[in-house]
């Protein structure tokens, strides 16, 4: 074949290789900003429980959860729609953006008034009412910024957004640290979040105009079509938001705000396992959208390998959380939060399943089975509060401090099991092949060995050295058994070092998919 006249297949393969390099580069850029922002968040997570104590920290978490639940409707399902459609037709963004912004503004005004009326009649302390209202304002900005970020991710323009994430996180973290140093009341602790989200909105709007040519125009006809297509995404987002927020609201009413504080402390620590979760929407979803446009086989292959990567990352983190729960609570939350260790152990496995459902939901969405995602998420939103209503009164007071928090953690655990099973059953063989199932089996064996070793060392080896020994055993085990393949990690590093430079179409380097 004449190298000066590459075939269409070679050109397509070259473009696909460049797409993968671009995705890796975007992942590293966003991952770098996430490392910085998570370092700031880690400091704040350690500061707030110590500054507020269990009860006030419970009020703080309850207020944020209540405001977020109240503003679920403003999501509109737009973020998922953007990540599905805009990667393949960027110009479409201007068709609906202006109208949806005005729609969200109107909804925000109505909800703020309704929220004030509800808070007035619930009898919550005035400072808590003010805190909820500040969180509500922040939430209205968060949903808009999520859509702005989705537009930039869909275009693959993330460098400016990465810098924006760092700047706004500094504004938030620095503001909270300053307020703690000044000893301000709890009612003002959401103001830094409002300020940081406002700064992010200004930066994101500028980036979207530059990279997408985004225009603010009103097109009601086009927006109606978009809203109709967004319906399953909206219902899914609403169900997921309620599933993750109503539990704290119920816990605060059925038990105590102190239980919310212990649960919030455990959830904050377990939430650190979500370090890479934004990458799924920022990079993986647009990439899978383009893969689905090419062929179902490519989409399934990418999904299986993504699930392998998810398990490789989340399982060891889960093991560290479960085996070192007492250590992490003492380190992150300080005195008064010791009862949070038990709910932390219950919560830790949830995040492995949550990552699996993230990848699964993307496959279902790209396979035009988004209503299945909605059905599973809605079922979870119904099951979770019912479990909370049953378990919180039963366990609260029966097992001592953290009984209510543990009940809430168990409710989330059982709910996540149900949703994960539903997703994977619908995917069938598109989720795991022989290679990934062997990887899961090997990892499970290594985890069992690590748990047995930890139990054997209890009483003879102190906590930190014991955790270090089990961590070393895990790393050695997954490498020796081949559950983790270093050669594939090196391949990703080599790809990243190319910095996303376009390869000539006639020089095509591709990897043959393995079953």
UniProtKB/TrEMBL annotation:
Predominantly, its location class is membrane
Compartment annotation? Cell membrane
Which regions span the lipid bilayer?
A: 30-48, 60-82, 102-119, 131-152, 159-182, 266-285, 306-324, 344-364, 371-396, 402-424, 436-457, 463-484
Annotated membrane topology: Multi-pass membrane protein
Task: List keywords of the entry alphabetically.
Answer: Cell membrane, Membrane, Transmembrane, Transmembrane helix
Name the Pfam families for this protein: Polysacc_synt_3
Give the matching InterPro entries.
Poly_Biosynth_Transport
- Claim: Membrane is one of the keywords in the record: yes
Keyword Membrane assigned to the entry: answer is: yes
Q: What is the protein name stated in its UniProt record?
A: Flippase
